[in-house]
Design brief:
This protein is an alpha+beta fold. The chain has helices at about 45-60, 65-85; strands at about 1-5, 10-15, 20-25, 30, 35-40. It has one domain.
């Protein structure tokens, strides 16, 4: 869920998974998968940044050791590639 602001200044929370697309016409208008349209004060770039930040937070909460696992995977890949090159 991301917090956005209606044109009248009232805050609202939106399920970002329901956003189909956002356009600036000229106000930022979000079209949900249901067909509902929401007009917000934030720019398209701000909405996108909030969605990315929210999704990163969800992933970090679900898999707190992801960074360590990715680093270990990359190190293993490099070692395998180096061994293959040495054997060629």
């Amino acid at each position: 869920m991301i917090e956005l602001t209606r044109l009248n200044g009232h805050p609202m929370v939106v399920n970002s998974d329901l956003i189909k697309h956002a356009e600036a016409i000229p106000d930022t208008t979000l079209t949900l998968v249901t067909g509902e349209k929401l007009v917000v004060l934030e720019s398209c770039a701000q909405v996108t940044a909030r969605i990315l930040r929210y999704r990163a937070h969800v992933l970090a909460e679900a898999w707190p050791s992801a960074e360590t696992a990715i680093a270990a995977h990359n190190a293993l890949r490099l070692a395998i590639d180096a061994e293959r090159r040495a054997n060629d």
